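Repro case for the chain-ordering regression, as requested:
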Amino acid sequence: MSEFKPHQLAALERRVDAAPKVRGQVRYIRDLKIPGMWLGKTIRSPYAHAHILGIQLDRKFDWKQVVVVTAKDIPVNQVAMLENDMPFLAEKTVKYRGEAVVLLAAENQDLLNEAARHVRIDYKPLPAIFDVFASQVSFTKIFGDNNLFKEIAISRGNVEKARQNSDLTIEIETKTGFQEHLYLEPQGVIAIPEGDQVTIQGSLQCPYYVKRAIDNMFAGEKRITVIQAPTGGAFGGKEDYPSLLAGHAALLAVKAGRPLGMFYDREEDVQVTTKRHPSYHQDIAYVNKDGRIIGVELTIFLDGGAYCTLSPVVLARSALTALGCYHVPNVRILAKAVATHTVPSGAFRGFGGPQAIFAIEMLIEKIAYTLNLPPDQVRKRNLIRKGQRTATGQLLKYSVSARDTFQDVLRRSGYKKKFRTYQNHNADILKYLRKGSVSSLKAGEKLKGIGISVSQHGAGFTGTGENKINGKIRVEILPDGRVKIFSAATEMGQGEETAIRTIMAKALGIGREAVILSDINTDVVPDSGPTVASRTTMIVGSLLIEAAKEIVKKVKIDLSTKRKLSFTYRNGFFHNSSEKHAFQDAAKLSAGWSVEKQYRHPPIIQFDDILWTGDAYPVFSWAAAVAEIEVDPITFDVRVSRYTTSHDIGKAINPDQAVAQIQGGSLQGIGYALYEKIRLEEGHFDITGFTDYIIPTATEMPEFEVSLIENPYPYGPFGAKGLGELPLVGAAPAVVSALWMIFQEEFNEIPVLPEFLAKIFERKTGKNVSD
Amino acid sequence: MTDRIDIISPVNLAQLDHILEKLRKPATYVAGATDIMVQKSRWEQAGTLIDLRTVQELVSTLEIGPEGILIGAALSFTDIIRYRIIQEKFPILVESCRQIGSVQIQNRATLGGNIANASPAGDTLPVLAVLNAELWIGPRLKDNFTKMSVDEIMTGPGKNCLQPNQYIAYIYLPFPEPTDPFWYFRKVGQRYSMAISKLSLAVLGWKHNNHIREIRICAGSVSPRIKRAVLTEKLLSNQELNSKVIEKAATQLMKEIKPITDIRSTHNYRKSTAGRLLQESLSTWARAGK
Amino acid sequence: MKIQFTVNGQNVLLDVNPKRRLLDILRDELQLIGTKEGCGKGECGACTVFMDGRRVNSCLVPALQLPKSKIWTIEGVEALPIFQEIAEIFVNQGAVQCGFCFPGVVMSALAYLQEEHNYSTKDRIAHGMAGNICRCTGYTKILEVVQVLETHKKLRIGIEEIFKR
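-- result from build under test --
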């Protein structure tokens, strides 16, 4: 941003939702005024693990004006997800601090607060487990008989032989922390009961997840409609959690017989909603002296928290991403998602990928520093290419850009030269720091670092997921000849509405204004699958392309029948030697006709989810990043000054917004590396909001140098693959790679705080400042 | 359910003092409200609120005498930052005000509030301490304000020694003499803006013939109260600045402060960083002299 | 407590709890729901409005301090003719994503332009906009908008007019 860049965006690059957002005209869930609506409140467990002995309502309080719901009121007390282990309300046992036990509804917040003071819940506290290693050997059972939500083993080649044939063995243990989504709009849901019907509206990513959960909760006794309200950021945080929240709202609404709003304030939101899984990795590499990796053994533990939620699939992505962008012929991966007495971990942009990429990239750093090779050289030596196979034996047949993105960031950032220049620059500063004397430093002098990472993200659901979901869309021709898309894909800031309408408009060769989108209402739109896993543009987009072909065919037939002539279709017009009809005029003939499309993977994509072999993802998106950082030798504050990244997402449907996504996602990943820390104290998160959960502000923003590399995916719309999650995935390892470069030390844990960096020199100077 | 809330909005100091004399219940003062409204239970329980922003003298008066300047306690940080005399005479104060919260907060929050809240992390407190600020406390007794220093008013984290009917009326800052001292202020936060301080250091000093004639040093967030580092100051006075002296001073400062480990940082980090900040400030000063 | 003040140039007379937040008065009493609550603690800036010509977090302004004040919200600002061109720049720069922080971002950007009279550096703009947290965009495009607006003399004069109202 050294110079401003005024844009003149191409018409199709302008976001369809931008103007009303800029004008503050979008109505989020909290903005809706529903006559007669009451508010809901949750009473939560103060213990991480306890028996509930009893719930007493104070008789002196006037309960007539308040509705109370406990576990006993719930027809089926299970939130339908992968395992049905999580209750809407705890009945006999609470398993995490903050778990919901009692729900209250009343006309206003004051009355709710007053009522809450008159509810007494007696507990018998029980020993709680907060450590994934303790959990695996504990007699206290949180889930199943071994506290494992899921265990995955992937094996390829012969690791034992690789060990014997290698020059040396290099090991590293890495650790990543919780991460909170901190979407700007807190969670909120409104439930409206009318007879047997319950309508749910909310800030959410996956309307059909919520519908299934509430259908199940009422044992099919109610008719459930779910409507997505404009959603103020989600990042995975509104994938699984809204099912629980909507259940609470629906229970209260039905019992109260009136509309009910459940709105979390920021503090409640950060304390009880899902977080990114903390991870522990034990990685071993068998390498040759030239840096070639001939075998790896990777072990992953994810802390899943008290209930399963999506942990098995997060774990799957973690395991399937564990090898990063490298080709290693002999691989053993063991991954476990473990239960503990903490808030359930859940979906978060990257979904197990950021942890895995951090671990493998730190292993690469360790190899480089052990062998005294440049970190870029070790990466280059092992990068995977087209025609090679992944850990699951997946043959990469197309759209592989590990090398191209890598070379591109090296070149654009000037990595190699800066690496040497910065090392020279740092030498004196480090010398002074080791001596504990900073008075010889020049004013404002900083340590300079440069780091690199390569990352990938499998687009769409893992393994056979897409074929199980069978996402559907429908497109209808309206009386005025415009087309209307019915899909459950949701907008949460990422630009889905713009992308989907753009794909359809381009596929038909018409203006985007002639393509409209249905409201996201489960009564109206088919289940296109959830808006997660960087799948929407690629999967829903490819269905739109198919639909567009049939629409053209149908209109052509209707037009030919009417005109008794044959037509060809090009650039938005049906024409022959004598006539020319614009799409929208011609389409009026087919008004009311609609086409439905259902997704199946291209048949060449095969995965065995018992043996964990085959095509884990239909295709991968690739990225590389170079982070340049400055470390203040006085305070050890780390600032990312420049961040150069290249992304291969096949084909960008909207290049401007692809860049915007990459900037935002990268900064979220930089936050993950340097600022975003949650400490757990007896199962309690020590954060209350923006004051103590530190995310980047504008002053932490680096200069972004983003480039897009086109490497089309043959089955994606115009070649597009997934984008949403990838930008976050490689950011933390790039930043931490720069710390290795400066300090020539092992960094194996994020976030890296200044307190940790300062300690390096306290140790080295031998000065004990702790009295 | 809120009980009756009394709002008192005095138009001037005379009226404020008069009301306080008669007031028989505890009152809560509101100036910029940026802190009190975040303390939910205190805010909810407050039954009598006195709005200091309506007191004309406290928001519009900046009295300048030959010796110093009198700043109304309910002036916002933005008012202070923009005030020319303060920019000229007290750049160190302007710098500390600029680093508070966001511009939105600076537009509302006040110097009086920063002092009364008595947070060890209060950004302006170390600066006021090195400026030898004098706090003028109302109500006036026989036309005289009670006067105290920053380290006197603060009795512990979040605690001040003011009686329920007392309030901070003015902050008196004597002009530094001789003029143009060396100054240094640095706040260390969890990020570059919008952060609560982990640690801060304010230094104000004068040299005479290459020797330190006077130096005032105060670190923030390192002890329950704001206190000048008098032993370090003593060690440095009459010294010529060289790397040996600087390192000795840093070691002394690290001994003199008693930081804790809390959510924002650790004892060790605060201690060693305070030492490095002092080294940075003194070496900057040493070089500036050359 | 009866209070009288102006919002977007209109006189308002209300009887409210003196501790009520300006944010709630705007949203619940005056139906001005463009202003958003992201944290309620003056940290995120989503509720930024103008009060007497300066930007403030409306979640930290109590009703008791409202008498005689002049408040401007996103609704008032976006209705001004000059805003058409400003909105156009935000849209054209691709600056918005989920939009929840945006009413605050827009108010803050305009206030920044009125506070700074010179062409400013990237760092200065970043500091000036740091009170508005956005989790989607990574800020780059938002700051670019501010830079574009800064060079736009006519718009700058127009923006300064808003603060004189």
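Ordering looks correct now. Chain A touches chain C through 65 residues (CB under 8 Å).
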